[in-house]
Design goal:
18 helices, mainly alpha, 431 residues, binds tryptophan, Hydantoin permease
Length: 431
């Protein structure tokens, strides 16, 4: 549940539908499904297996499976770049999540008749952004300092079921509104002329890696907390299925909602004629849609932004856990202090970005998710398949899945992470 909570986040409910909207709807969905299972799932398994074998954070774990001096140095480098990357990912993720909390309070304020407060909450300003990123980071720090069982597991298993229920209710409701079917059509009828477009491939791969939280040691550290009796290939496929399932479902909410907004007179196309994606979608199109719905719109807005906040929180805790686990295990810092110190440092970076939004925000997003993450994913495959002993991998998986050697997983996966994944990642990357 915690690993699914990490995977399911803004990437699914926001990133996936908007990527699909701007990349030919079902053509993107189709490519994404293939890449998620063919590329991202094997990479996810590599992280989970390494983590459970080493029972440690990424730096220590990669060093454990390396033998020579050079590979140990490489392990240190990859582990560290992962820690830095995930910290920067959290710094922008926290800002966007802060907006979600602000927009959650907006309908509450309107319900109470506090119209000035409502205007303040929805107006994109440095003060509001700073306050809410700090609030969101405090929640994240609070859960992480409570520990793995009492913090991460407890909150993930509370929040994830609520997320699924809210999402389903919202889909059912939006699909009954006028215009929704046009959105469903735009989402589900593929425009195959776009499928060979290199930018579609790059977007779909980036989306799959981001969505499964790969390359930075998040899944590795969660893997290190999984009991040896558990069947790793099954756990990995459940996480991937739930992640993809929720992304696909979120598409059935967001795209119909955009066309419902169009039918009620809200602008959903940007200047260049494409569908509004990016921040504009969630913080302008959807709130205007909710406000055309009258009284019920207030409750729909509360439900929607509660959904976004919950999804963000189960992901942000998995990000903060990466540097915190390293500090606790490697430098013997007490968990509480580590969470406080590292969480504050990342919040400081978020604030720097908030104060210099235009030059920094896109830059941090691009460098971390489009440059660093795929390369780290590539490195993890190299570690799992080329540096680590195959017999040790098999032993590790066998602990919770004794029959693995005769099953389909062991026939395909080793070849896959060894040849197909690294080559495919590089090809898509250089495209
Ligand atoms: N997967 C999450 C989402 O879809 C975000 C996330 C959590 C993440 N942990 C990560 C992304 C580590 C990259 C790396 O929103």
């Amino acid at each position: 549940m915690a690993a699914s909570g990490s995977a399911v986040g803004l990437g699914n409910i926001w990133g996936f539908p908007t990527n699909a909207a701007s990349n030919g709807g079902a053509a993107f969905l189709f490519t994404y499904l293939i890449l998620a299972f063919a590329l991202a799932y094997p990479a996810l398994m590599a992280e989970l297996i390494i983590g459970r074998y080493a029972r440690a954070n990424a730096v220590t774990a990669l060093r454990t499976i390396s033998s020579g001096n050079k590979t140990r140095l490489l392990a240190l480098l990859v582990g560290f770049i992962g820690i830095v990357t995930v910290s920067f990912i959290l710094s922008f993720y926290g800002i966007v999540s802060g907006w979600m909390i602000a927009f959650f309070f907006d309908p509450v304020a309107r319900l109470l008749g506090a119209s000035q407060l409502s205007a303040w909450l929805t107006n994109d300003a440095v003060m509001r952004n700073s306050l809410f990123v700090v609030l969101f980071m405090l929640l994240t720090i609070y859960i992480i300092s409570a520990g793995v069982k009492e913090g991460i597991e407890k909150w993930a298993s509370r929040l994830m079921p609520s997320l699924i229920v809210i999402l389903l209710l919202l889909i059912v409701y939006v699909l009954t509104l006028p215009g929704a079917m046009d959105g469903l059509r735009a989402y589900l009828i593929p425009d195959f002329s776009l499928i060979a477009d290199p930018s579609l491939l790059v977007d779909a791969m980036g989306q799959a890696f981001f969505s499964l939280s790969l390359g930075v040691g998040t899944m590795l550290i969660y893997g290190s907390y999984i009991s040896s009796n558990e069947n790793l290939p099954t756990i990995g496929s459940l996480v991937a299925l739930l992640d993809v399932g929720i992304a696909v479902m979120a598409g059935m909410l967001i795209l119909p909602a955009m066309y419902v907004a169009l039918a009620s007179g809200v602008e959903i196309y940007d200047d260049s004629g494409g569908l509004i994606a990016g921040p504009g979608l969630i913080v302008s199109v959807l709130p205007s849609l909710f406000s055309t719905m009258g009284a019920i719109g207030v409750f729909v807005a509360i439900a929607f932004f509660a959904l976004m906040t919950i999804a963000s929180l189960t992901s942000s805790i998995s990000m903060l856990e990466v540097p915190v686990a390293y500090a606790v295990e490697h430098h013997e810092l007490e968990r509480h202090r580590a969470a406080m110190l590292i969480g504050s440092a990342i919040t400081a970076i978020s604030l720097i970005i908030v104060f210099n939004f235009d030059p920094l925000f896109d830059l941090v997003v691009t460098v971390t998710t489009e440059v660093s993450q795929p390369l780290l994913g590539f490195a993890f495959c190299i570690f799992a398949a080329w540096i680590w002993q195959r017999s040790e991998i098999l032993e590790e998986i066998k602990k919770g899945c004794p029959e693995v050697e005769s099953g389909i997983f062991w026939k395909i996966w080793p070849v896959y992470v060894k040849f197909i994944c690294p080559v495919a990642i590089l090809v898509v990357y250089f495209q």
